[in-house]
Amino acid sequence: MQGLVLQLTRFGFLLLLWLFVYAVIRTIRADIATAGGSRIIRRDRRARGDHAKGSARYLVVTHGALANTRITLGAQPVLMGRAADSTLVLTDDYASERHARLSRRGDDWYVEDLGSTNGTYLDRAKVTTAVRVPINTPIRIGKTVIELRP
């Protein structure tokens, strides 16, 4: 009888351990999802209305450690990540060394994820291929949010 009680105690302890691990993973996922400032992005989009038309001249960091940083766009692609040789060096723990690239094709700008760990998001959609970026549409890389501006 003691063997059965010991086995049930072990099984109960193992079950509690797995529930704890599940709760920790769920909490971390929720923190990462809200850390990108998705609430702030939705509020800004409602206040701003529809996308403005015209050609983008600047890349502006709207949220994150580099907020209010402005880069003048030219013909060269903009590399974003934690690497020191990136055009926009992100001091963000959720950004990869080479996270994303913003490149010009004609009058339009396209963003593409460079195989990052946490992904790149255009508005609220995950970027899997090169995607055209409308002006004033938020691009989220970790906790950093950037936009193209005329």
Q: Overview of this structure, please?
A:
- By secondary structure, the chain is of the alpha+beta class.
- It has two domains: 1-35; 56-147, Tumour Suppressor Smad4, CATH 2.60.200.20.
- Helices cover 30% and strands 29% of the residues.
- Strands 2-1-11-10-7-8 form a six-stranded antiparallel beta sheet, with no helix packed on it.
- Strand 1 and strand 2 (70-72) form a beta hairpin.
- It is elongated, with a radius of gyration of 21 Å.
Question: Which secondary structure elements does this structure contain, and how are they paired or packed?
Answer:
Layout: H1 2-35, H2 38-48, E1 58-63, E2 70-72, E3 78-81, E4 88-89, E5 100-105, E6 108-113, E7 120-122, E8 125-126, E9 131-133, E10 139-141, E11 144-149
Parallel strand pairs: 3-4
Antiparallel strand pairs: 1-2, 1-11, 3-5, 5-6, 6-9, 7-8, 7-10, 10-11
Protein name: FHA domain-containing protein
Domain FHA: 78-127
Keywords: Phosphoprotein
Keywords:
Tumour Suppressor Smad4, elongated, 150 residues, alpha+beta, FHA domain-containing protein, six-stranded antiparallel β-sheet, 30% helix, five-stranded mixed β-sheet, 2 domains, phosphoprotein, FHA_dom
